[in-house]
């Protein structure tokens, strides 16, 4: 079993990599920075995880995404799992009606278009191995407590991608399963390491995501919520 995880050098991605690795998966890290990737690999290997290397990927650059997918197909033809974890927040402090178009486009480029391109490119490899695509996301429904437009809109597009792909994989007998996991409020760089009541650590979330992936059940098309978004006192 071999997994490629985007944004695996830190935060939730690192937590997923560690707990999948401890459960017997071979891990390939997706990262933008060689130094950070090397540090993450060292930490994972020190904890007993089998790491097959890393692949440079910048989701905002479709050429980089295509090159990463080509590298994965050539060097890791036994890939059985893609975890689309990497993402950017946009400006979470902006009101919906004041959102800068630059932030909106930038967030969509990474969280949806780049993620879609990577997913599309890796479907042939995953199909050969009866693999899975797991997307780390948030609910499409608007929360009164947390609703940054750029980020939520980009994840809504990703959720739609997941639902439609799942339906068509089943309809067209493509042996790939895809589903979404919402980690819930988590303390990471994405939210400025916010730590409020109801928040969980990236390690806790990584363990929970790994448990879902390893539960032996078919989750095709499902939206799995680990922890709900809570009232942050906003």
Describe, in plain words, how this protein is organized in 3D.
The chain is built from six helices and seven strands; from the N terminus they run βαβαβαβαβαβαβ. The protein is globular, with a radius of gyration of 17 Å. Strand 1 (2-6), helix 1 (11-22) and strand 2 form a beta-alpha-beta unit. The model has no long low-confidence stretch (mean pLDDT 89). The chain has helices at 11-22, 34-46, 62-75, 101-128, 149-171, 202-213, and strands at residues 2-6, 26-31, 50-56, 81-84, 132-136, 177-182, 223-225. With 234 residues, the protein is α/β, with parallel strands linked by helices. The longest helix is centred in the middle third of the chain and has 28 residues, at 101-128. Helix 4 (101-128) packs parallel to helix 5. The protein has a seven-stranded parallel sheet with strand order 3-2-1-4-5-6-7, sandwiched between helices.
Number of strands: 7
Overall shape = globular
Q: Provide the residue-averaged pLDDT.
A: 89
Predict the CATH topology: Rossmann fold
Q: If you compute it from the alpha carbons, what radius of gyration comes out, rounded to the nearest whole angstrom?
A: 17 Å
Q: Quick one: biggest sheet?
A: 7 strands, parallel
Report the CATH architecture: 3-Layer(aba) Sandwich
Classified by CATH, the class is: Alpha Beta
Q: Indicate the percent of residues in helices.
A: 40-55%
Entry summary:
By secondary structure, the protein is an alpha/beta fold.
Outline the fold blueprint.
Layout lengths: L1 E5 L4 H12 L3 E6 L2 H13 L3 E7 L5 H14 L5 E4 L16 H28 L3 E5 L12 H23 L5 E6 L19 H12 L9 E3 L9
Parallel strand pairs: 1-2, 1-4, 2-3, 4-5, 5-6, 6-7
């Amino acid at each position: 079993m071999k997994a490629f995880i985007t944004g695996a050098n830190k935060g939730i991605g690192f937590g997923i990599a560690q707990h999948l690795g401890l459960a017997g998966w071979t891990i390939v890290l997706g990262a933008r920075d060689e130094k950070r990737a090397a540090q993450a690999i060292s930490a994972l290997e020190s904890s007993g995880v089998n790491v097959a290397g890393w692949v440079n990927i910048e989701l905002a650059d479709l050429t980089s995404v295509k090159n990463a997918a080509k590298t994965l197909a050539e060097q890791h033809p036994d890939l059985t799992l893609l975890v689309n974890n990497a993402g950017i927040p946009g400006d979470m402090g902006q009101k919906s009606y004041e959102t800068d178009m630059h932030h909106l486009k930038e967030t969509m480029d990474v969280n949806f278009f780049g993620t879609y391109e990577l997913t599309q490119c890796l479907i042939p490899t995953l199909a050969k191995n009866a693999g899975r695509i797991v997307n780390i996301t948030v609910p499409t429904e608007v929360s009164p407590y947390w609703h940054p437009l750029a980020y939520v809109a980009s994840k809504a597009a990703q959720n739609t991608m997941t639902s439609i792909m799942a339906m068509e994989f089943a309809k067209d007998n493509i042996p790939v399963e895809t589903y979404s996991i919402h980690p819930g409020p988590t303390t990471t760089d994405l939210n400025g390491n916010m730590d409020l009541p109801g928040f969980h650590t990236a390690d806790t979330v990584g363990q929970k995501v790994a448990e879902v992936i390893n539960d032996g059940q078919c989750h095709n098309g499902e939206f799995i919520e680990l922890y709900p978004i809570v009232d942050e006192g906003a």
